[in-house]
Amino acid sequence: MMRLELVKRPQRSALFSALSPFIAFALTIIAGAILFALLGVNPLTAFRIYFIEPISQVWQLHELAIKAAPLILIAVGLSVCYKANIWNIGAEGQFIFGAIFGSAIPVLFPQFEGPLVLPLMLLLGMVGGAAYAAIPAFLKTRFNTNEILTSLMLVYVAQLFLDWLVRGPWRDPQGHGFPQTIQFGDSAVLPELMPDAGRANWGFVFALVAAVLIWILMGRMLKGFEVRVLGSSPRAGRFAGFGLSRMVFFAFLLSGALAGLAGISEVSGAIGQLQPVISPGYGFTAIIVAFLGRLNPLGIIAAGLVLALTYLGGEAVQSALGISDKVARVFQGMLLFFVLGCDTLIHYRIRLIGLALTEQEGAAKLDAAPKLKEAR
Amino acid sequence: MSANHDGANLLEVRGLTKIFGTLTACDHIDLNIAKGEIHALLGENGAGKSTLVKMLFGSLEPNSGEIFWNGQAARITSPGVAKKLGIGMVFQHFSLFEALTAAENIALSLDDGSPISSIAAKARALSYSYGLPLDPDSLVGDLSVGERQRIEIIRCLLQTPQLIILDEPTSVLTPQEADKLFETLERLRSEGKSILYISHRLEEVKRICDRATVLRHGKVVGHCNPREETAASLARMMVGNEVQAVVRAPVEGIETAQPLLEVRGLTRKPATPFSIPLKNISLNVRAGEVIGIAGVAGNGQGEFFESVSGEVLQQDAASVRIRGKDAGGLTITGRRLLGAAFVPEERLGHGAAPRMKLSENLLLSRHATDGKAFVGTGGMVKSGAIYAASQRIIEAMDVRKSAPDPEAAALSGGNLQKFIVGRELDRRPSVMVVNQPTWGVDAGAAAHIRQALIELSRSGSAVLVISQDLDELFEISDAIAVMHNGELSKPMPIAEATFEKVGLLMGGAEPGHAEHTLETA
Q: What CATH number belongs to B9-239?
């Protein structure tokens, strides 16, 4: 009789650290094939429609960039949080508040025009996202609340607040009662990169620049070192003289600002006005992007493109095969599930083992014993 | 060595081998334990003692080899099986719940459903009959380390074992408490019980053990009668060669030297229900001297270290002064900038980040003090400079490693400790505070670290060493103070200090006889 066992590696495996997203992607494809087969669709046809057709023309690549931009912007911010072992789950809310703050200028002062409008909107968007992220940071440092819960719950507050705004005080008086603000003026619209080729706007450039900057911050700068030390061994971080409360604020404000920038870029670029729903869950999908990208900003760029494709593919299978576009959410969920599962391979080896040799059992107990002690 | 299946041997081990990956932790170990003997298992850290014992107690399964119990082949697959056979174990690190009473803790391990009151009564009777008085209704959190060990011993004895394994039992005891333990062990031996006694303290092994098995690098290097050996000859067997003795030149005119570290009336409330409050601690460490702080673990040393290092701030800024400046309100970074350096007790997770490279761990404690050298404009880390500096330290401290710049967790404890101490020495700090400098470090590396600390002091720095190892403190200190229950005695000059005097203070005797030439503020 044989069984599988996990054997702890002495060092984390660099190979599997790089390989695990690809294994996860392969497993997602296999699971997806089963899913499509059960829905009565030939998996090969479905995959062609899901993964290939949405990116077979240049204008479609622009659509991909539009979807990837907010994912990458949010995910690089979240990667800093997660490296610091701070769990900001509320990027969706920070995204919305960035959009609201930035939209205040074109909605409240439609007469104000000129080259200053857009930079001010983007800045306000970052301020809005950061301010909204400061709430869970403050609650955590002041009252020791769990930031996972507070940041998540604030998402729903933000969604309902936006809903109220566009139905109430900010509703377009000439909008025939539709719940939306006025269309932004020309100077409040984020320009397209190559208007002749497709719709992609400067948001994608912001995302790439943010990813490179965060990559330098985390890999080359003292502040990034501080993030990594406090995240991996808080006591050593305190010994180094790094403050945990300061770090909570730094990580939340930074990720909030980037989510806010994503929010205002989306509204002023792709949508052009505020409406009750401005995001297909970018703030949550970005969590998957961050982990699929190994919390590495450059990896996140690639992961952002992959997840953007799942959105486009979802729309494509809906129109071509009549399958609900919720299938995109299923793919995203499976991807995160498999990524987290495959991460086990970074720290563990899988060994096929006969029942007679049970030394790993003992080793596991040996591992468990000191943990008990530490727990005291 | 007595013969095989004649019934005299309670336990026989033949060719026991345990392999972890590429490391052979135990390599064909042979061991016989007779009925009614105290058998010592000697060896340095990493010699394989703990692995061997874990196999005997069923928490590890051997790769090969045989175990005979009373002449019968036995497979000890779990601690439960070991207990049933009649093997009991008292671990070096206790596994007790502090928020429960002694009796509740015992009941948890007995697992037989008898009511707490009857267990308490049994435990009380047993504890008095063995001269280890214990109140079963007291909360573990309120007990001293010595008393906690009694719970572990009583818990073990309640299962009426024939073989009792004790792992470094005296490392947490005062010399006087240890004497009491030895009486108990002798009594158990006279009742025909066997004891496997693990230690690296040679004097006590010579004193109470009938036979000894010495391990080195996972192999048995000899069996002997410790009473016929000298401490030096046992040490040679353990280490394999002579360990360089530490040289400590006497200091002159220290009374007039500048105090570089001053602690004045330091008081701290307990941070958690089970931590020790610090009570009015005062101490001066002058340029050129090493002051040792002795004490049984858990008497406030950790709290004291945190307060001096600045990981915890003081309300009264003057309660800690570094080089004549009030530092009580400064963070650890501020104190480092005044010239102080710190080495905490825990290496992994406190003194070093386990999953970071050595060069990054250099940055950990020196990003502020060596800001110019290691951090460039705009907060960019100069990775070339920290790599070069870490290689310099690795060379100076003879750190053995498998890769040019490995993760801290990949180093053995002793080598990591050498790096962590070397990281601070490399700065030539004027004040050095070290908690347990050689805990878990092999003899050669320990001598290296001790000598380096003495040399730092002789070059004009103030060195404060907190240690549970009395031999170490007597080797390197110019004066020894004792911490007990959050209070610190006056430092005793080393010329006047004896094990007995220090031991009494560790047990909580009044520091009345500690007349000291160095006045404390």
A: 3.40.50.300
